What we know:
It is built from 16 helices and 20 strands. The strands form six sheets. It has a six-stranded mixed beta sheet, sandwiched between helices. The protein has a five-stranded mixed beta sheet with strand order 12-13-9-15-14, with helices on both faces. The chain has helices at residues 7-15, 25-38, 41-46, 100-107, 114-122, 131-149, 171-187, 240-249, 302-332, 348-379, 385-397, 429-432, 434-446, 474-480, 493-499, 522-541, and strands spanning 49-53, 62-68, 74-81, 125-127, 157-163, 190-196, 209-211, 213-214, 216-225, 260-261, 264-265, 270-276, 288-297, 344-347, 406-416, 419-420, 451-453, 503-505, 510-511, 519-521. The chain has two domains: 7-214 and 418-466 and 501-541, Aminopeptidase; 216-415, Alpha-Beta Plaits (2-Layer Sandwich). By secondary structure, it is α/β, with parallel strands linked by helices. The protein is elongated. It comes from Sedimentibacter acidaminivorans.
Amino acid sequence: xxxxxxxxxxxxxxxxxxxxxxxxxxxxxxxxxxxxxxxxxxxxxxxxxxxxxxxxxxxxxxxxxxxxxxxxxxxxxxxxxxxxxxxxxxxxxxxxxxxxxxxxxxxxxxxxxxxxxxxxxxxxxxxxxxxxxxxxxxxxxxxxxxxxxxxxxxxxxxxxxxxxxxxxxxxxxxxxxxxxxxxxxxxxxxxxxxxxxxxxxxxxxxxxxxxxxxxxxxxxxxxxxxxxxxxxxxxxxxxxxxxxxxxxxxxxxxxxxxxxxxxxxxxxxxxxxxxxxxxxxxxxxxxxxxxxxxxxxxxxxxxxxxxxxxxxxxxxxxxxxxxxxxxxxxxxxxxxxxxxxxxxxxxxxxxxxxxxxxxxxxxxxxxxxxxxxxxxxxxxxxxxxxxxxxxxxxxxxxxxxxxxxxxxxxxxxxxxxxxxxxxxxxxxxxxxxxxxxxxxxxxxxxxxxxxxxxxxxxxxxxxxxxxxxxxxxxxxxxxxxxxxxxxxxxxxxxxxxxxxxxxxxxxxxxxxxxxxxxxxxxxxxxxxxxxxxxxxxxxxxx
Length: 542
C-alpha cells in the first residue's frame, strides 16, 4: 500500500502500521510520519522537521514535529497522538484489525446492532483500529500542514506535533512542553492556539461538536490496613475489606461528587481496581486492602479532591466501626466487646511525615531500596504505577505507630489538569471568538451550526497546554504522589504554566472508540473537519 495525498488513502496507510500504546511499535509509525513529512517539498527543502526523543522513555519513543514558517511570530499548533489501544477486543479478527478493507468485509458476516450494520452498509464510515482514535485526526492535520506548506502568503506559523503514549501515561505530551519551549526560542514563535483533532460523538448527523477545553483527571489511591485475626475470633480483628467496601459504596458513581461548570457535568468517580492484598489462603482475615478511583474534574483541584476523600474515608471508617459494634452487640448479647479504635485517616504527606518523625534514617533507607525495586518492576511491566503505591505505603506503615484500622490516601499517576479557554485571564480577541468563527464557517459552507462544548470528556493531551490552578495543584501533587520524588513520574508544571496556550478540539465524528467496531465518518475526513481547520486558520491569522 502506498501513501497518498488523499486523506482516505493516507489514513488506510497509517492504520496499517500497528502502533499499540506503550510499546516499541509506536516507533514504527513515528518513522512513517517522519518519512511522509520529508516527502513534502517545503520540508525537504527547509529541514524544519524532526523527531524529539523523549529522554525519560525506556521504550525510545519520540515526538514528531514539523514547522511551516510564516511571516509573523503567531503560531498555531496542530496536535495529535499516533498511539492506539490494542486489538484484543477484536477476538479472532485481531489479525486484520489494521486492514480497513478486510475488517469491513468480515464485519458484514457478524450479527451486529442495527446502528452498526447501517453504518457498515452505508459506505460512509471507515472501520478499523485507530481510524477514529485518532489516526483520522492525525491525517487531517498532516493534509492541513501540507496545504499550508504550499502557501507563501500565510502570516501564521503552523507547528505539527504528533506525540506517543496518549492512551497510557501521556509521556509524549508531558515532554512536549519542553520541546515547545525549545522551538519557541529557536524559531522565535508565539503560540496562539493548539488545535487537537480527537474524534467526537454527536447527536445530529449534520451538527459537528467542538470543544474549548478538556476534562481533568485525578486518580486517588486508597490503602486500608485492618487488624488481623483468625476468622474464628473475628471480633478480635477488623477486616480492611469492610472499610474499603464502605469507601467504594460512598464514592462509586456517586453523582453528588460530580464536578460541574459552565452548564456541563463530568461523569461521577469510579474505581478501576480494588482488592485485598492477601497473597495466599489461610484462616485469617486480610491484613490490608486497597484500590484506586478516578475523579474527572472541571474545576476541582487536587487540594479539593484530597479534602473530599479524607472526609469520605473518615466517615466510612466510622460507619465500619458502627457496623462492627452493632454486630458485636448482637453476637455477644452485650456491649462489652465494642471496638474503640481511633479514626486514623491520613493523606500521604501526613503519613510519611509521621513515619519520618519516628525513624528518619530507616525510612529514607527503606524508601531508597523500594524505589529502586519498583523502578525495575515498572520497566519490566511486572507492576503498574498505580499499584506500586501500595508497596510503598505498606513498607512505610512499618515505621508508624498507628493503632487500629488505618486509611492512607495518595495521588497516583497519571494526573491530567482540566483546562478551559473560559478560565484564561488574558485571551487574544480572535482566539476568544474561535467557536463563533467556526460556526460562521460551517454555516456558510455546510448550512448548519456547530455545537460548542467547554470540556472534551474523553481525557486528552490538551490538559498539558496550560495550568489554571497552580497553587491548589502543584504542592498537593508533589507532596501526595509517592512516585514523584524519585523521578518515576513527573509533569513539567512550571513549563506548562509559562506556556499557557488556549486550546480547541476540532476532530472528525467517530464511533465506538476502543471497540472492535471503531469507525470514523468519511465526510469529515475528506471535507468537513479538514475544511473547518483550514478555514479557521485563514480567518483568524492570515
